[in-house]
Amino acid sequence: MHNNLVILAGGASSRMKKEAILDNLSPEEIAQANERSKGLIGVGASGRPLLDYLLLNAKKAGYKNIYIIIGEQGELFKEFYGNQNENNNFHGLTISFAVQYIPEGRVKPFGTADALFQAVEQFPELNTQEYSVCNSDNLYSAKALLALRETQSPNAFISYDRDALEFPSERISRFAIAKLDQNNQLLDILEKPTADDLEHYKDVEGKIRVSMNAFKFNGNTLYTHLKNCPVNPERDEKELPTVLLNSVKANPNTTLGIPFSEHVPDLTAKEDIADVKEYLKKHYPVLDWNV
């Protein structure tokens, strides 16, 4: 099993920064939503950020080496998790920071695939190892993260049962869906599915599966696809699902969809903050690092 987890935290958080009038948020919470990276918004006990809880679950799952990809203005991460560029000790985890630089001529980062490519260029040891990748603004369970460590498949992703996600149906309907074969090998990912598409994308259990950006990769075989990832013409970004599909085309039957049926708390917009706070209060009444 591998010990490396790469956390994507360098995005622009543009949806979180959109103006919203919510009477269930304090002025401090609104200020944090406007100013901080999403994973650093204080939603937990004593105002600790969501990323604390993700790191706790990563520790429970047995990860040792954490690489957080931050933006060029991401110094606040170092205030929380260690001021060195690499090998900070945080509750027994080794925390290092990769920086996603914005290319000249752009105002926003170039997407998740670009973030990971810049990280493996800055930490080339990842290209000779296996590693997991996930978002900083989702709280994946320790069980799901452990499944990524345990799988023998060269590449994999957590394949979530769409019906188990506790989001509004309109929001869920916008999620990209995965097409798997009878052995749960990835065949395709469909962005913006229509109602007619759903019947053709059910897996062997009759479930519609979605990815929440929780991946396991073989660094050696993925590197070329990361480096050569094309730009999505609609969103003008380089995206990890594109990398994954290009890897599948080049190496069929190497990307397993690991079926899971559970909710994944998410901080996308200000409207999510109160929901995540309630989830943490219910499921993580104490942030206990003694694991």
How would you describe this structure to a colleague?
Strands 1, 2, 3, 4, 5, 6, 7, 8, 9 and 10 form a 10-stranded mixed β-sheet that branches. Strand 3 and strand 4 (93-99) form a beta hairpin. The protein has 291 residues and is an alpha/beta fold. The mean pLDDT is 96. The longest helix is centred in the C-terminal third of the chain and has 13 residues, at 271-283. Helix 4 (112-122) packs across helix 9 and helix 8 (219-227) crosses helix 9 (240-250). It has helices at 27-35, 50-60, 75-81, 112-122, 142-150, 169-172, 195-198, 219-227, 240-250, 271-283; strands at residues 4-9, 65-70, 88-90, 93-99, 130-135, 155-161, 177-180, 186-190, 209-218, 255-260.
SSE inventory with pairings:
Elements: E1 4-9, H1 27-35, H2 50-60, E2 65-70, H3 75-81, E3 88-90, E4 93-99, H4 112-122, E5 130-135, H5 142-150, E6 155-161, H6 169-172, E7 177-180, E8 186-190, H7 195-198, E9 209-218, H8 219-227, H9 240-250, E10 255-260, H10 271-283
Parallel strand pairs: 1-2, 1-5, 2-4, 6-10
Antiparallel strand pairs: 3-4, 5-9, 6-9, 7-8, 7-9
Helix pairs in contact: 2-5, 4-8, 4-9, 8-9
Outline:
The chain has 291 residues and is an alpha/beta fold. The protein has helices at residues 27-35, 50-60, 75-81, 112-122, 142-150, 169-172, 195-198, 219-227, 240-250, 271-283, and strands at 4-9, 65-70, 88-90, 93-99, 130-135, 155-161, 177-180, 186-190, 209-218, 255-260.
- End-to-end separation in angstroms reads 19 Å
Rg for CA atoms: 18 Å
Largest sheet: 10 strands, mixed
Q: How many alpha or pi helices? A: 10
